[in-house]
Amino acid sequence: MAVEFDVGVVGSKYVGLATGACLARLGCRVTCLDRDAQLISDLQNGGMPIFEEGLQDLIFDGVREGRLRFSGMETLSEIVRYSDVVFIAVGTPQSVDGSADLSNVAAVARGIGQALAEGREEPLVVVNKSTVPVGVGDYVSDLIRQGAGDAEVDFRVVSNPEFLREGSAVQDTLHPDRIVLGAEEPDSIEFMRRLYRPIIERDFPEAVKLDYRDKVPVVTTDLASAEMIKYAANAFLATKISFINEISAICELTGADVTNVATGIGLDDRIGPRFLNAGIGWGGSCFPKDVNALRATAREHGYEPNLLDAAVTVNDHQREAVIQKLQHHLETLDGKRVALLGLAFKPGTDDLREAPSLYLAEGLHTQNVHVTAYDPTASTKATKLAPYIQIAATLYEALTDAHAAVVVTEWPEIVDLDLKKAATLMKEPRLIVDGRNALDPVMARKIGLLYEGFGRG
User: Fold this and answer.
1) Which residue in the list 22, 28, 32, 286 is annotated as catalytic?
2) How far apart are CA 241 and CA 237, in angstroms?
3) Helix, strand, or coil here: 416?
4) Which is the most buried residue in 145, 225, 417, 442, by most CB within 10 A?
5) How many CB atoms lie within 10 A of CB 164?
6) What is the distance between the alpha carbons of residues 100 and 295, in angstroms, rounded to a whole number?
7) What is the pLDDT of residue 331?
8) What is the pLDDT of residue 196?
9) Cα dist from 170 to 17, 62, 86, 132, 226, whole Å
């Protein structure tokens, strides 16, 4: 393996931590920076800002072996001066109009320019890992030059979008489906190939044990195309989910079962089975933000993205459909007790950004519903965002005396719910709204639960 590069990573949250920790595992000397002083202090003292399988152990090993450290932005000049490459991995949150807020990226780019003006012998490779609209690679170059003022500075900007799934970030970083590199200079592409060589060639202990036979595909292209690849990938997956949810609505009206329909169409290799799970819809930090940013980019260029608009409309409807199903069976929601089974937007994470659970909790709370909830990782965060949610210590405590329960997150313990026990704990009408089509409807009805899935005839 023997890869030794000095790497700076600006932004020490989800993408930055995964990138930095994995590069340290591959033999790089990595410094992760962030402007959040408390975050850096927590990381320096062994704390973790996110729940992500395998990441804490990776960070611990990197720190213990001296390959990974954390620092505030005051060391940016030092990092720029001595690093071979600097990754920009800061957040690009959604603005009011749906476009990406680039203020964090801009601040880092100007800071890099100021640091470069202080002097450096070799050209610096600046890698944009943040999710940014098409054209931001050139924008970053302009901002670096602005930050440098009158000084002549030498750098290369590379677009290297991340395709991490929350809950499997370490796996996706070390064993990716593909690596996308966008740049205008061949030498910067070649540098990134050297940096990622152990991943591309699967030449590190974990990969060797898995006995991979093929190298990781590397897509090399221009800056704009690399930036578009990221948005197009997430927009397609979001649209695929909305498509099956649209089909599920038609299945409910016609008596068809969407799970069988999804199986049937998923066997077509032109379609594939993944992301064909009907239910409560998509959430999280990526799909909503990236689809809206792509819609905003389209409109900036005078194009109406009708398909993307429809995908968002369908997704919004799925959340409303949960409330409608509850209202239909409970007749009135006023004074009822509803349990939310799961809070995180997906299993394997504690992320509540754009989580359907928060939309449901707020909607139910406004109708005087007593909302209880259980989640193995996200409860603490949920109480800060929605203090009216009564957090239960266990899954079955949440179900106790509930008139209805909504399956929101398909955590294994929720998928394996003891339906008989649930029936004894709940109050009439003992309604289960299965927002993930994760439970067995035949068994649920057989033991006396009122079951409502999505598109299940």
Assistant:
1) 286
2) 6
3) coil
4) 417
5) 20
6) 11
7) 87
8) 97
9) 10, 14, 20, 22, 22
Is 20:9 a contact under the CB 8 Å cutoff?
A: yes
Q: In the prediction, which pLDDT does 67 show? A: 96
Radius of gyration of the chain (CA): 24
Task: Tell me, letter by letter, the H, E, C secondary structure of 121-178.
Answer: CCCEEEEECCCCCCCHHHHHHHHHHHHHCCCCCCEEEEECCCCCCCCCHHHHHHCCCC
Per the rule left: phi > 0, alpha: psi between -120 and 50, beta: everything else, 134 is: beta
Strands of the sheet with 85-88, listed across from one edge: 68-72, 29-34, 6-10, 85-88, 124-128, 155-159, 179-182, 218-221
Report how far apart, in Å, the C-alpha atoms of 255 and of each of 248, 261, 262, 322, 410 are: 10, 12, 15, 19, 25
- Report pTM: 0.92
Region of residue 440 (left: phi > 0; alpha: psi -120 to 50; beta: else): beta
Query: Is residue 32 flagged as an active site residue?
Result: no
- Low-confidence spans in the chain with pLDDT less than 50: none
> Where do runs of H (alpha helix) occur along 255-336?
258-266, 287-300, 306-330
Amino acid identity for residue 387 in this structure? P
Which pair of structure tokens corresponds to residue 335? 């004074």
Give the SS3 label for residue 349.
coil
Q: How far apart are CA 426 and CA 420, in angstroms?
A: 10
Are the C-beta atoms of residues 356 and 436 closer than 8 Å to each other?
A: no
CB atoms inside a 10 Å sphere around CB 314: 20
Question: How far is 49 from 43, CA to CA, in rounded Å?
Answer: 8
- Looking at residue 2, its pLDDT comes to 57
Q: Which residues pair with 252 in a beta bridge?
A: none
